[in-house]
Amino acid sequence: MVKSGTIIxxxxxxxxxPLQLMFSVFLLLRGHDEPGGGFIxxxxxxxxxxxxxxxxxxxxxxxxxxxxxxxxxxxxxLLLGMVSVVPAWFMGQPFLTAQWWTIPVIDFKASxxxxxxxxxxxxxxxxxxxxxxxxxxxDKDEP
Amino acid sequence: MxxxxxxxxxxxxxxxxxxxxxxxxxxxxxxxYPAMMAAWLISQAxxxxxxxxxxxxxxxxxxxxxxxxxxxxxxxxxFGLLITVIGTCVLIYAGGYLKGHxxxxxxxxxxxxxxxxxxxxxxxxxLLTLFVFWELTSITxxxxxxxxxxxxxxxxxxxxxxxxxxxxxxxxxxxxVLLGVxxxxxxxxxxxxxxxxxxxxxxxxxMLICLxxxxxxxxxxxxxxxxxxxxxxxxxxxxxxxxxxxMVKAGIYLLARLQPELGGTALWVGILSVVGATTMLTGAFxxxxxxxxxxxxxxxxxxxLGTLTMLVGIGTDYAMxxxxxxxxxxSMYKGALFMVAGILDHxxxxxxxxxxxxxRQQMPITAAIALIAAxxxxxxxxxxxxxxxxxxxxxxFGADGFRxxxxxxxxxxxxxxxxxxxxxxxxxxxxHRHETPKTPHExxxxxxxxxxxxxxxxxxxxxxxxxxxxxxxxxxxxTAVSGQPLAVSxxxxxxxxxxxxxxxxxxxxxFLLFKRWDSVRAKLSVLAPxxxxxxxAGYESLMNGVVRFSEWQTHLLQNGYMRNYILVMLLVLxxxxxxxxxxxxxxxxxFVLDIRFHEIIVVGTMVMGALFATISRSRxxxxxxxxxxxxxxxxIFILFSAPDLGITQLLVETLTVILxxxxxxxxxxxxxxxxxxxxxxxxxxxxxxxxxxxxLIMTAWSIDQFETISAYMVENSAPLAHGRNIVNxxxxxxxxxxxxxxxxxxxxxxxxxxxxxKLRHDNGGDSKANDGEKNSIKEPYDG
Lengths: 143, 783
Known about the structure:
Radius of gyration of chain B: 33 Å
Radius of gyration of chain A: 18 Å
Domain MrpA C-terminal/MbhD (chain B): 605-669
Domain NADH:quinone oxidoreductase/Mrp antiporter transmembrane (chain B): 124-413
Distance between the termini of chain B: 44 Å
Strand content of chain A: 5-15%
Keywords (chain B): Antiport, Cell membrane, Ion transport, Membrane, Transmembrane, Transmembrane helix, Transport
Number of helices of chain A: 6
Helix content of chain B: over 70%
Strand content of chain B: under 5%
Shape of chain B: elongated
Membrane topology (chain B): Multi-pass membrane protein
Oligomer: heterodimer
Structural class of chain A: mainly alpha
Largest sheet of chain B: 2 strands, antiparallel
Distance between the termini of chain A: 10 Å
GO molecular function (chain B): antiporter activity
């Protein structure tokens, strides 16, 4: 059985999880130019939640996730992946042609590949968390 | 226009909302859609009739030559009008028939989706677009037949209809692809204008057979007719619409559409006229053995479908005229008769005509509608059905091939059809009053409106064929079917000729048959044992065979032991790779021994990890040593400067270890299950796999056949895709479609894992629930 962790693990997890999550977003956003990207970032985020899961158990992790069911994350991720396809149609270009817009003030490159990458991020996060949490819950329910 | 048609799907999806807003009036509100489409078609009619086909272009997938272009010519106009006008009647009728039904929104969704698919089917210009809409009608038909999904018979019938039509759909797809290849065009309009003759193409025979299989299954031609009577499990509005007026005519539409390009050969004439005539006779003969009013009508529809196929097969100008006239007439009277059958069922609570009688008093309007529609079915003047039947008989007398056979079949069918018409029109409404499960009274206006409109159409088109441009519409349709200009001028009186004499004689004989129907039916029941060996029995045994085969191969391949799965997969892989690398090509090995010391250490660690994993007697130990292998691989990626791969490998490895550890808690104590012989076998398989993969990699590395594409990626990543990280650019831009597919695979895998774990936990230890589940899986095939 996976038991809730020790003081060291609990304390570490409490501080590491936000850091890891921030790091995952950082990896996600820089992915197009430097090592990183949606898949890696999704795995890092999943690692963050898994660490928290090991420290505090399933119900505490569910509280952290609030209403975000991992299964919903999968759906949202796939939806974003599909949505990123659409703008190209309006520009009269073939399916999945990347579209780029520069947001002037902060000089940020917004693009359909970024939306797509966020979709990958969420789908990976949702899939891994879904599997891990389902496995943990089986443990919890056994007498 | 394409948008207007596709909007129908949106309307279908929003019908639950409309049902909430408009309550039981939702049907009438939804009926506005087909009514508007009908109005649009009528508004286009003058230009189509005068200036020829109308092309509405819309590219869909230009790189594959798939377009959503619509072609409106006489034939699609006729079909489009049938679909929209009868659709309007049926929707209004359904509002009364299914009033207060809990699932009426679901009914509306499927019915509207069907209507849109059918419209798309008859309007489509692209071969592949036609196929897509064709399959959509099969699927919506499945949903509608199985509308009463708690009824096992309805589910079984729905599945049967789906299997038969979709199997035909597969053949149709092959046929359409062959047609596209042979003609070099994917557009019906272009194929129609081509100089070269497809009949002389080498692919003509296979193409024709595939296309005919598709058309025959859809249009319930012998020997595929059996699904149609079973489809009567659907609510009556569905039977009236899909299984009489529209969907089953899709196959006929296809035949008519291709007649100018493919028709006229001995093969075409032979198959179509013989199969059509056989279907005609089979339908008429089986009809009089049934007392269920819907089955009676279903078999009589099969008879009509056979007639239409036969007429396309005969292919003379006369037959073309007869074809379009019969088609229009049949849709009108059969739609009305089905709706009358629905009214009878709704008001009396029984479908058995022998259990009804004397209803004329209670339901005078229904009786009048039934009488007119049945007279049209029987082909009695002055109704439109008479003109259709006269033309049909004249076409049969003028047929080039198989004339004697066709005349005989048509004559016998005519007698039987007249008996059927008399049964439907007279049996429920005249004679003694029978006690019925419900006390009958006249149907509500909404249910009388649709059939009423259709019989008024039969009557007025019969009396004044030229009225409302009926002649012009049929002229355009017949022209489209025959491929050359035809003038259709209909009239009731054709003079005294063979067709008229046949008509009169068959009328008398048919009425005689009706008088003796009860005793004839009793005599025919002797044939029941023979009937049980019909095509449906063949279908059943085929399906049972499929189930038995899949059970056998599931036991063989899916026996639930992970070790077997892996063994089978590896053996297949070994067979494939060794076939390719050892037998067909020779392995190339060009050794360059340029190995650094740190590389040896990393690889050595991997080898040690692998070895320890195989001999370890502790699961945790094995997991850790596999993990060591994974981390070493990550190290290799980093050594060869692939940071993205390295990071990914590290993270995946970490999560794999976590997942494995979670699973390990649930496993029983470690024990050695395999014998030493099995272990030797596994060792040999593993070694073979290792050696082969080594050879494969060395060969791939040694031969330099193609220029690598990495240079292109490196050069264009920043300027074209605005990214410096090539790996990521490939993932989200160059190969985004692959990534999208992988996302779906990942999501499916995760959902599978979650579902299995949750299901297990919900049913845990509850053997009863498990049994129930097993039965519900098996039931569809046994039931």
